[in-house]
Amino acid sequence: MYKSAGNLAELQWPELKMSKNYLLAFTTHPDQAAAIAMAKVLVEQKLAACVNIIPELTSVYRWQDTIETNTEVLMLIKTRHDQIDALIETIRQQHPYELPEIIAVPITYGLEAYLAWIDQSTRAE
Fold it and tell me: pTM value?
């Protein structure tokens, strides 16, 4: 009879922790300067523990019935689930786009110490 080995990721990498408390949010900006300015606001307000900025990606999309192609900057934002509403509101208030891309996906697994650092870095004092 087959016996379940449990959670494979946790068996292979015991330092990984499964959690539903953390999110990876994505947004794009028109340029590096705007992305850096937004990242600093999010980290200073403790809405994000870390923001990675990936320069010069090409986006192809339909906007107002026209196909557009633009160079943008992608932001990867590590945060907690309970911070997402405030993070979205901050991005919407300060974003230069009429309709900013804001997508968040759960961080299913993460290094336990790293997830603890996200907690520490995003906690209100």
Answer: 0.85
